[in-house]
Structures are given as C-alpha cells and as structure tokens.
Write a structure and sequence with these properties.
Shape: globular
CATH architecture of the largest domain: 3-Layer(aba) Sandwich
CATH class of the largest domain: Alpha Beta
CATH superfamily of the largest domain: DD-peptidase/beta-lactamase superfamily
Strand order of the largest sheet: 4-3-2-1-9-8-7-6-5
Number of strands: 30
Helix content: 10-25%
Number of helices: 11
Number of domains: 3
CATH topology of the largest domain: Beta-lactamase
Length: 575
C-alpha cells in the first residue's frame, strides 16, 4: 500500500453541520488508485469500516477510530499508517476530505450507486483537457462531466501531473453558454463559456487568484498508470561509512538524472558528505518539516529552563483574550509537539495568494482568528494527526513566552549552543549565494518559501554539515555541552503511537522495528530526510533540491536506502 503516499500542494476546507447518516459502500480515487470504502452503521454513526485498494489487490483493510461529529468524519487505516479526515454532505452521499500518509492528498468518496445517464446528454457532457500554468509549472487538468436522467450535472477534476484524481465538483451550473463549477476540496472554482461548436471551454480557474484555464473536448479520458510495487536491491554486508561512496555511486546509477542532492552520513563518529548534481557540499537547502524537530527541541530547552511545562495549555502562551478556556481538556504544548492535538493539517483561513509562496502572508493575527473560532479544546479521541498548524502554533507560542521572534529563539536555544552557523530562517547575503535553486516536480525552478505564523512548522534552511552536527547531538545527548543535552534526551522519550511499528517523542518519529528516529520534509522546491539510530550509532541526512513527485519522495527513499546499506539489509531500489 506504499503507493498511497502521493503528494498534492493544495488545501482542504472543513465545514460544520448537522450529523448526516452514512452507511454502505463508497468509491474514491487516490492518484491512479481506485479505492472502495465500506461503512457499517452503528447506533450513533459508523460502527466499523474497511478500505479496499482495488488496483493493488488489497481488500478489507480495517478502519480504526471511526469518529463522526456533526459533519466531521475521521478514521485511520493502521495497516498502511494512513488517516482520512473530512466532511460529509447533507445527504451522506459524498465524503470530501484529505488522506494523510506522510503528506496530505485530497480524497473524495462518493456513495457507490449505479449512475443512470441522461437519455440526452448536456452540451458539456464528456471529457475535457486543459493546462494550468501555476507556480512555474504547467499542470494538465482533466475534467469529466456527466448528467443523470434527472438532468442534474456532475463533474470530477483530475490534476494528472500531481496524481490527484476524482476531485468532486460542487455547484455545477450550465446556463445558456455559461458553465461553472467549484471544487471545495482545494478551495477552487472555474467559470467560463462553451464555444459555439461545443469543442472548447474558455474561462478562469480561481484559487486565491484567477488563472486562465481553457479546456478542449477529448474522445477519451487519460487514466494514469498505477505505481509499481516497491523494489529492493539485494542485501549486502553492512557498509562502513568509509566505503559508502563507492556503493552509492553504483546504487544511484542514473536515478538522479535531474536535480542535485547532498548526503551527509556519520557512523561511530566518522563523517562523510557527498554531493551529486549541480550542488556543492556546502549548499543550503530548505529542510521543510524537519524544522519541526528544531521547534520540539526549543520546547524541551524551555522546559529544562523552567520557562514552560509540557502539560501547560497553549492558550496560556497566547495574547490575553485570544481564545476562550474550554470546559474540558484543552490542547497542551506536549499535545502539539507529539501531533496529538486534534488540530487539522492546515487552518481553513489559509488563503494562499500564490502557490509559489503559500505561507508568507499567513500572520499570527490570522492564526489567532482561526483559534478564536475553532477553540483549543482537545478531542477525547485525539490520536496522531500530522498538523503543520500545530507545530506552527507551538513555535509562535514559545516565541510569545520568550518575548522574542522564532528566528531569534531558534538561535538562542538551538543553533548557538550546537554551533550550527548555517542553520537559520533568514539567510545572510553570503548564505543567499549558497542557497541551492529549488525545483518543482516537473524540474522547473521555483521560488523559495517564506513563513510567518507557521515558521515553526517548516521554515528552517540548513546544510548537510550543520545537519550532521545536529544529528550527532541527537545520537549522543550526554556529550552535548551545557543544558541542551538533557533537552535532547527529553525529545527522545516516546509518548504516543503513530501507526504500526511507529511511535513519537517530541516531533521525532521512532521506528520500533529498526530503532531509528526520523523525520522528513518538503517545500515547493525542496525535500529532505533525517534519521539517526542510537543503537547502531549512525545518522543520515538527505537534502534534495526538488520537491516531492506524485510517486513519493526521492529524499525519503535515498535516506532509507543508505540506512539499509549501513545495516546490511535489502535496500529500497532508487531507480
């Protein structure tokens, strides 16, 4: 089921309403994968459910922690370490939400009932194909429109190059020659006109801002191929770090045809850094969500200094009057750091003006406005739910308590004590010259990302050398100078479950079958992977100047491959 781990850089929105009834069978598309969801009714909502991945031959995957609150539905699929969260339509026929399995992907389920087509199709029925130029990329967009025997129009949108298929359309309207629809799962809408010959739809896609998007009629739909199952290179004797370069040169082969990557490895104190492609060993990269582990270490430092407590409500670190005290349990700093707060992946008032830099205009005032509406009550069933909002909130709250900014607090609590001179949020002019050019999934250059309120979730830039120093400190907290050693150890205390064979400390995810702590990250132009294994005394960091692609993360695969070579295990193939 690894093929479920797709990437899609768009955002979801959550609605509240009365509790609808949901039972029976639903169908959905995750990238090229056909999914079936089967829900059985209980006294107050779904009692049990199973998920089938038809194309991968996986049937009857058990759903756990099924929870329906008003229109909000969520469930987990422990066997694939995945979670779905979203909303139910008033009639219970559509489940619109997000699948999370390391990254978020819009996933819409529709009640699986036979469709009876109209005897006379509408003028827009059929398959349409267009190209959307956004964020420096040209993305193919496929639209499939149909009308039923009652004359009701429906449609689904496919972002072919991003692997996002079957996004449900809302409010589909055809009036004269005007055609329009919305796609609430990504907060977008299209409107335009049908050409007189019926073969073109010319109009505008609006998602924060308007972009031209014209469609031409097609004879048939483009169906993306299902991803192949993962392949592994044969195991070999454990490779010492001194011999890793030769093995990597052979294993990489032609896998890195585009982009540049810097790899850092330390084993029993011996360090090596390798650069491949158009980047140098001292190149600086955006590390994305690996930043969350720095935010967690900042929390641990402030706990050790007596400035905060792990069980302290985050509400108490916000400006007075920001959000009301809930009646029951409320979200604590620990809940945020271990991703058990119940907060969504992203706030619903994040209206990115540009996908080239989606977080830059989201300010603390916007976050506080969201919290005032959402509240800080902790759900009774708050299990692991990966939240950029949660770690962004934690970073802002810690800066508030310290009376400074996140970048300054990062320097005082982490980078200065550990001697990380190239790890920062804001680059100096000299560092700007060493920033690797980032690329999107189509290998086109893109703009770096900047953050404000959500800085703690993904804003840090670093080098392989600095990251190795950081990971060496994680390997040996007892050797760290000053009080930071006890803070590092605090981050490694396992406090909750993530999924099969995975637990979490403060941000770091622990793999119980390998004994490794890890975290990955991605922005619009970069991806990263960091791992350390105290038992075997090695650490690996991979910094790649290209974001995720529809098939997953090259940085993740490469990092895991290196760890498997160091341990003498079969290694995930890189080709």
């Amino acid at each position: 089921m690894k093929g479920l781990a797709y990437f899609f850089l768009l955002y979801t929105v959550v609605a509240m309403a009365q509790t609808p009834k949901i039972t029976g069978d639903y169908a959905g598309m995750l990238g090229p994968l056909h999914l079936k969801l089967h829900l059985k009714a209980g006294a107050a909502g779904p009692a049990e459910g199973t998920l089938d991945s038809v194309d991968q031959g996986a049937a009857g995957l058990a759903c756990a922690n099924l929870h329906l609150d008003g229109k909000e539905l969520s469930f987990e699929v422990p066997s694939v370490r995945g979670k779905w969260r979203g909303t139910v339509s008033d009639d219970g026929a559509t489940l619109s939400g997000t699948w999370s399995q390391g990254t978020d992907i819009p996933l819409v389920f529709r009640r699986d009932e036979p469709f009876v087509a109209a005897e006379k199709p509408s003028r827009v029925d059929g398959v349409w194909l267009g190209t959307l130029s956004a964020g420096g990329a040209n993305l193919r967009v496929q639209l499939q429109v149909k009308s039923d025997r009652a004359g009701k129009l429906s449609c689904a949108l496919d972002s072919l190059d991003q692997g996002a298929m079957g996004l449900a359309c809302d409010d589909v309207q055809l009036t004269g020659g005007r055609f329009s629809f919305a796609v609430s799962a990504v907060k977008g809408a299209w409107s335009g006109t049908l050409a007189e010959n019926g073969d073109r739809l010319d109009g505008t896609w609006t998602q924060g801002k308007g972009l031209p998007l014209n469609f031409t009629r097609q004879q048939s739909a483009i169906a993306p191929k299902a991803p192949p199952p993962p392949k592994y290179d044969d195991a070999m004797a454990p490779v010492p770090v001194a011999g890793l370069k030769t093995v990597l040169h052979r294993d990489l082969g032609t896998a890195l045809q585009d982009g540049g990557v810097v790899i850092g490895v330390v084993q029993h104190g011996a360090r090596r850094i390798f650069a491949y492609g158009p980047v140098k060993e001292d190149a600086i990269f955006e590390i994305g969500s690996v930043s969350k582990t720095f935010t967690a270490l900042m929390l641990a430092q402030m706990v050790e200094q007596g400035k905060v407590k792990l069980d302290e409500p985050v509400r108490e670190l916000l400006p007075p009057g920001t959000v009301a005290k809930p009646e029951g349990a409320e979200i604590t700093l620990l809940d945020l750091a271990m991703q058990h707060s119940g907060l969504p992946r992203l706030p619903d008032n994040l209206n990115a003006a540009s996908l080239q830099d989606p977080y830059v205009n989201y300010h603390p005032s916007d976050m506080y406005q969201y919290l005032a509406r959402h509240g800080v009550a902790k759900p009774a069933d708050a299990s692991f739910n990966y939240s950029n909002l949660g770690l962004g909130l934690l970073g802002q709250a810690l800066a508030n308590r310290a009376g400074t900014t996140y970048p300054e607090l990062l320097r005082a609590l982490v980078t200065a004590p550990l001697g990380l001179s190239d790890t920062t949020v804001k680059l100096s002019p000299e560092q700007e010259k060493r920033l690797a050019q980032g690329h999107n999934a189509q290998h086109q250059p893109v703009h770096p990302w900047n953050f404000d309120a959500l800085t703690g979730a993904g804003a840090i830039r670093s080098t392989a050398s600095d990251m190795l120093t950081y990971l060496e400190a994680q390997l040996h907290p007892d050797r760290a100078a000053g009080a930071i050693g006890s803070a590092l150890a605090l981050c490694h205390e396992l406090r909750g479950d993530v999924g099969p064979n995975m637990k979490i400390g403060l941000a770091w995810i622990f793999q119980t079958d390998t004994g490794s702590f890890w975290h990955n990250g991605a922005t619009g132009g970069y991806s990263s992977y960091a791992l350390f294994n105290p038992k075997e005394d090695y650490a690996v960091v991979v910094l790649f100047n290209t974001t995720l692609d529809p098939e997953g993360s090259f940085a993740d695969n490469l990092g895991q491959h290196i760890a498997q070579r160091l341990s003498g295990k079969p290694a995930v193939a890189l080709h």
